[in-house]
Design a protein that fits this description.
The chain has 196 residues and is mainly α. The protein has 12 helices and no strands. It is globular, with a radius of gyration of 18 Å. The chain starts with a helix and ends in a 6-residue tail after the last helix. 33% of the residues are buried.
């Protein structure tokens, strides 16, 4: 059982994580997207994508989903810095930010969360490769959705994401996604009345 201070420190970390539900993915503003998805929305689908890719690649789906779920939690403190902005900034490492975020939490949380972030940032296991692919594939899916909404400046995100994918499964899913609309999944259940 946690001491009162550790419980408050852990609860504080959970409140901080809730900020991700309000923080927008700012890179999309460069493409002209006026109201981009939140970091939490991105992280949720990245976790689902990661679990699916793990199943396809023979990796541990639960571990990949965990890596994906935590991969952007540092952005509560440093924000979502677009890639173009990173060349002008020297930000703290994600490991350092995470260590600060959980410093007052229960010791098991400190150890566990720090280990997840360290593995995501530095690991070379199949699970880490799949988690990074999930992040890129989710970005590609989001770009396709924004393109359908009329934002034509998202092609560089599609190209960059596609070019970054390492696993065969991620490349296969990306290529499939690029040949369909984001609502094509409904056709399976509603029949041919839904347009592709």
């Amino acid at each position: 059982m946690a001491e009162n201070g550790q419980a408050k420190g852990t609860a504080g970390y959970l409140f901080e994580a809730g900020m991700l539900k309000r923080a927008k993915r700012s890179g999309w503003w460069i493409a002209g997207v006026k109201d981009p998805e939140t970091i939490a929305e991105h992280s949720f689908r990245t976790g689902v994508v990661g679990a699916v890719l793990a199943m396809m690649e023979g990796a541990d789906p639960a571990k990949v989903a965990l890596l994906c779920l935590f991969h952007d939690t540092q952005e509560t403190r440093i924000g979502d810095i677009p890639h173009i902005g990173r060349r002008y900034l020297t930000a703290a490492s994600n490991e350092r930010v995470t260590a600060d975020q959980v410093s007052a939490a229960h010791p098991a949380v400190v150890t566990g969360v720090n280990a997840v972030i360290s593995e995501y940032e530095n690991g070379e296991s199949l699970e880490v490769v799949v988690a990074h692919d999930a992040d890129k594939l989710e970005c590609l899916l989001q770009a396709v959705e924004y393109r359908e909404q009329g934002y034509q400046n998202v092609q560089p995100w599609i190209d960059s994401s596609l070019g970054s994918l390492k696993t065969d499964s991620a490349r296969e899913l990306a290529e499939a996604a690029l040949t369909m609309t984001s609502l094509a999944w409904q056709k399976v259940y509603l029949g041919s009345s839904v347009h592709e």
